[in-house]
Amino acid sequence: MRTNLTVDDLGNLLSLPLVGTLATYRKNGEVLLSPVWFEWADGGFNIVVGRNDVKAQHLHRDARASVAVYENEMPLRGLEMRGTARMFSEGLHELRQRIYHHYMGEGPKTPDEAEIGVRIEGTIRAWDFAD
C-alpha cells in the first residue's frame, strides 16, 4: 500500500462519479456517516445538503467534518479529508446543477431553497495499492 500521496498522485479519482462518505458529529460525540455526492474544486469538497437535514444541524453546532472517497477496483485509490465545514448559499444553484450533471447527466431545472452548500477544506490523507 502506498501512502502519503498527493491528490495529483491519485489521477482522475476525484473526477469519477463516486459516492463520498461525509462524517459529522452528533451532540453526544458519536460520528454519523452519510453517503454524499460531491464536487472536488480548489483543494476541497463542495456538497449540497438539506437546510434542515441532520448533517446541516450537526455542522452548524460542530463544524468538524471528514469526507472519504475511494474506489473498489484496483489500484484501490482513496482520499480522506479531515477539516472544517463552512455553509454557504451563494452560487448554490449552479453547484447543485454541476453535481447533478456529474452523477446523473442532467441538472435540476429550478433552485431548491431548502438546500445549503457545504465547503470542506482541511488535511488530506491519500493512498493506493498500485504497488
- CATH 4th-level superfamily: Electron Transport, Fmn-binding Protein, Chain A
CATH class: Mainly Beta
Widest sheet, order of strands: 2-1-5-6-7-4-3
CATH architecture: Roll
- Calculate the terminal CA-CA distance, rounded to whole Å: 6 Å
Summed up, the domain count is: 1
Q: Unreliable segments (pLDDT under 50, ≥5 consecutive)?
A: none
CATH fold type: Pnp Oxidase, Chain A
Helix fraction by DSSP (H/I, runs of at least 4):
10-25%
Biggest β-sheet strands, sense, barrel: 7 strands, antiparallel
Mean pLDDT: 94
Order of helices and strands: EEEEHEEHE
User: Which term fits the overall shape?
Assistant: globular
Give me a quick take on this structure.
The chain is an alpha+beta fold and about 130 residues long. The chain is built from two helices and seven strands, in the order ββββαββαβ.
Describe this structure in words.
- There is one protein chain.
- This protein has helices spanning 54-61, 92-104; strands at residues 20-25, 31-36, 39-41, 44-50, 64-70, 78-88, 115-127.
- It is α+β, with helices and mostly antiparallel strands and 131 residues long.
- It is globular.
- 16% of the residues lie in helices and 40% in strands.
- The chain contains two helices and seven strands, in the order E-E-E-E-H-E-E-H-E.
- A seven-stranded antiparallel sheet has the order 2-1-5-6-7-4-3, sandwiched between helices.
- It has a single domain (8-127), classed as Electron Transport, Fmn-binding Protein, Chain A (Pnp Oxidase, Chain A, Roll).
